[in-house]
Amino acid sequence: MEGKGPHAHDFHEILSDDTLGQKTPEKTERLMLELAIEKTLKQNGHKLNDIQFYIAGDLLNQITSSSLSARSYPIPYLGIYGACSTFCEALGLASVLIQGDFATQVLVGTASHYQTAERQFRYPIELNIQHSGINHHTVTGAGAALIGANGNGPTITHATFGTIVDWGLKDPNDMGSAMAPAAFKTIKQHLSDTNRTLEDYDLVLTGDLGKQGSKMLRLLFSRENFQGLERLQDGGAQIYGPEQKAGAGGSGTACITVMTLGYVLNQLQSKKVKRALLVATGALLSALSVLQGESIPCIAHAIAIEGEG
Amino acid sequence: MEGKGPHAHDFHEILSDDTLGQKTPEKTERLMLELAIEKTLKQNGHKLNDIQFYIAGDLLNQITSSSLSARSYPIPYLGIYGACSTFCEALGLASVLIQGDFATQVLVGTASHYQTAERQFRYPIELNIQHSGINHHTVTGAGAALIGANGNGPTITHATFGTIVDWGLKDPNDMGSAMAPAAFKTIKQHLSDTNRTLEDYDLVLTGDLGKQGSKMLRLLFSRENFQGLERLQDGGAQIYGPEQKAGAGGSGTACITVMTLGYVLNQLQSKKVKRALLVATGALLSALSVLQGESIPCIAHAIAIEGEG
Asked: How, if at all, do strands A275-283 and A203-206 pair?
């Protein structure tokens, strides 16, 4: 589905088989992540010995895709969990390790798979849940990146780590509405910390608020008279086309990952965008927390990134 | 059980009710973590505004105890997952944030509960699984600590983050044997990086290898003729007494946490120990990865800590 959507041309590789010949979707998810890492290392001609950390996370219980993928690399491994905010948490931590002189190169990776997420978080996949206008479709994809102290490519200039925001919403089928206040808070904090406005960015890409959450985010900004709302885009809302019947849009750890490494990097490279703000949002619920009546704690981490020259 | 074991006198508080009046053990686990944090903040007289990060993780799917606890604090939150290695991963990251000048105070916290872990990872708790000599009993406990750039108390001097080690072991009822090679590798790396020997530490406390894993770790060191094996102790192996029928010993994110914040800090304060190495080990399996025939990827992170004066 991702390879048939409006951003198909942005992605580095489109798999024709969403099982990759594996017996279970969990094994496929892990293999996708490993393939993304192999490609990243090969493309950059880097040696494993020159990489000091591997930071990864995914949606699965006990982030098994990430931990199992780390078996292949003799690199100190930091497992993290931020649901769909994982990629920006990883980029932020990688930047900390590099700017603090603890590393010169950090590998980050995430993956998600529609089938692993459906069977873990939602109803049995056999029931073939219908998409409404507010629920999400987990992105099948993986991405990896090498963050380095030197080298070519765009530069991470700021990281704003978010706090938990929980407005008491409890509907796991409307994660966009739950996450929008977290995105709002982190973006406001980032703009205040950096003394910038939305208009200082050519693109502000939120994680996967989807159509519903994006609408809510715009409403929140409008109520406080923010200008520059036309800079806002959402990875989840635009990864699938309207004909693809994907509800409110994409979600999953892979969503902002593939939209960043595909779409945003292409925009930066072609200089259509000079400065972008990535805002990965995460709904930190579990099947059990929902059953026990907990509301959904949400978070958003923001990463400012600038193109070359 | 922890409050009746040989280290009962080391712990700051022993709860008489392992439900804390909550309807589910998951809610109890979260409440224990929140109580530990409240106590930490109160003891230190610190204001939330002076703390730049909250780093937490636990064993539950999607680390819900940690994320839900973070709702209470308006502090940027980093969720991590390292199973029983979580506490040292958190201490290491906190040290990075402080030494790199990204923070002056970082709050870290972890919790685990026998009943949440049993029902998530093992058989239905109603079956009342018998302990053998090699399986573990998850520690019911919680701990929190403030890591600061200044102030009183012991000092973290080094952090050695581990790589994944997987020798192909697949038995989730013998995590000690699976984790021992990870502890071995990280300790060797730490000693090599710092040009130290085991004898440079008064105490090397591994996480929760338990009796079986500790035996294996000693064997690995002996085979390479390491000296100073009498410095090795294991939090899991000694948190329960032999009469408590706890199999190979304790495990869980709380195990090394309460043994560090209780036992090790007491040893440092009384100057019985001047320099300690904490080596938290984690078995990064999930119920699903075991069912799908995956071996157990293991990790260990080491933190060197020195007493005052």
From this structure: parallel
